[in-house]
Amino acid sequence: MSTHTSDVLVIGAGLSGLVAATEACESGATVTLLDQESEANLGGQAYWSFGGLFLVDSPEQRRMGIRDSRDLAGRDWWGSAQFEDHDVRPRQWAEAYLDFASGPKREWLHGMGVRFFPIVGWAERGDGTAHGHGNSVPRFHITWGTGPGVLAPFVARAKEHIRAGRLRVHFRHRVTDLVTEAGRVTGASGTVLVDDPAARGVASSREVVGDFDLRAGAVIVTSGGIGGNHDMVRAQWPQRLGTPPARMLTGVPAYVDGSMMPIAQAAGAHILNPDRMWHYVEGIGNWDSVWPGHGIRILPGPSSLWIDAEGRRLPDPAFPGFDTMSTLRHLRRTGHDHSWFVLTQRIIEKEFALSGSEQNPDLTGKSVRQLAGRLGSGAPAPIEAFLEHGEDFVRADSVAELVAGMNAVVARESDESGADPVELDPQRVADLIAERDAQVDNPFSKDRQIQAIHAARGYLGDKIMRAVAPHRLTDPAAGPLIAVRLRVLTRKTLGGLHTDLQGRVLSSADGSVIEGLFAAGEAAGFGGGGVHGHNALEGTFLGGCLFSGKVAGRAAAG
Ligand SMILES: Cc1cc2nc3c(=O)[nH]c(=O)nc-3n(C[C@H](O)[C@H](O)[C@H](O)COP(=O)(O)OP(=O)(O)OC[C@H]3O[C@@H](n4cnc5c(N)ncnc54)[C@H](O)[C@@H]3O)c2cc1C
Q1: Ligand 1 touching residue 545 (CB < 6 A)
Q2: Does 37 contact ligand 1 (Cβ within 6 A)?
Q3: Which of 101, 110, 112, 114 is nearest to 150 (CA)?
Q4: What is the pLDDT of residues 452-491, one digit of tens each?
Q5: What is the Å distance from ligand 1's center to 252 Cα?
Q6: CATH of 5-223+494-557 given 1.10.390.10, 3.50.50.60, 1.50.10.20, 1.20.1290.10
Q7: In the chain, where are the structural domains located?
Q8: How many C-beta atoms lie closer than 10 Å to residue 455's C-beta?
Q9: pLDDT tens figures, 484-515
């Protein structure tokens, strides 16, 4: 049995755990960091992430002509969060996080060598109202080097602390219990898992070869969310989103298993807003899977025509990239688990990006030469690979041929897994396309989506990289036609361990502080048990790990 004592014990070596551990070390504490996975997985989900960070009034925004402010970002956050009366701590965390994102965040990262792609992305464009959900302006800053670029300075700092003897890291240590003595959390115990040479992200063995019991002055839970555990996602799925899909793709590695949630509850911790989650509606099956059920999220530009499984066009504001949660709500009412993008080769070349570090080798590898290829003709290589191998993609020269291909995709899955064998009517799809195409000949239109495309092109960044000029989907010069089947992809957990502004976990019995227990990152709903409320503005998850990890690490060090 491994036993020893340190000032702070951190459970989970993802981004939030690395930030918490290094901050605690820098506050003078000795720290032990545990993870159930191997060293190959150091950094957790952040490694796989796109590295998009929410920053407010940054030099990158100003260079792109974007006028942003703390006040505008606050209005957007509140309009999106739709906080409820019980969200007292989440509100406090949101205020503090907005101060961070519009204040020291960029300089802190910049000082550690983190750099950003100059064109700021416009995620979650919103529900079409000034007061409601969405980013009024582009705020999604892609880190040069994507997720690994965000992690790099914290991994380097952790290595320095290991060398200096301030930090010990135990991999393959899976916590099964928190230790409480005289009302204070004083450590964690669990099982040691067999060494497993599996590559990063690949599900690893759960064979037990030993146990451990480690003690500390304070314990920080940074164990991530629940997105890899579909049973938990289904059990916590909120009624307001209808029923959970029978089949979902998985947007996170298997270790995002929510296992620490019942363990923390058993130690008296309160989980706030367990039914708030952030799953994507534009998931595609990964033809080159790393983890079980691996899906990739398309980060779409605004032009694809979005239709449901029966061929009905999705309503305003359910346009690609506008309002994730209201689109999910709408789709769950259609009675089917999938929907479709219908687009052209011209649209896919400019408007499709895939979330994930491995899907963006140019940005991840910091290759300006490769990146320049995005502006040339043809789709980026990872998109071409999906067109070639992806089970959800259909290419055709006519609408009739396209719909036949779409029906074949659905029939194939239905044969394999008994999924809903719904068929599209080619005439219905042809009529929808014709109606939409009749709206593109003027620089104005009565069609809300075409209006939105024109508006997007008013932003230079979108005009250069993300929004094609409106054109007929049936224009042979823009072709061939493409259809992409979309499924729900599990990703983020918006609720979590209820914490105060120092990251101290609160008790489910009476809301008091549980002495010795802290939480940060996705496990804490990125702070307070739900800093995002009901909707996220994107880029706020990595940022939430940075901020809440920093706060909890310093507070736990005392
Ligand atoms: C493909 C992808 C793209 C993304 N893109 C973005 C983006 O562009 N911008 C953004 O803001 N966010 C993005 N995210 C989300 C973001 O990466 C995550 O929300 C964030 O990294 C979570 O970090 P964490 O430290 O809280 O948890 P994790 O990274 O999940 O780490 C938790 C760790 O705890 C360990 N653990 C869990 N339970 C136990 C236990 N019982 N015992 C021991 N160890 C345990 C796990 O093994 C894991 O290593 C993306 C995520 C993915 C997967």
Answers
A1: yes
A2: yes
A3: 114
A4: 999 999 999 999 999 999 999 999 999 999 999 999 999 9
A5: 8
A6: 3.50.50.60
A7: 5-223+494-557, 279-489
A8: 13
A9: 999 999 999 999 999 999 999 999 999 999 99
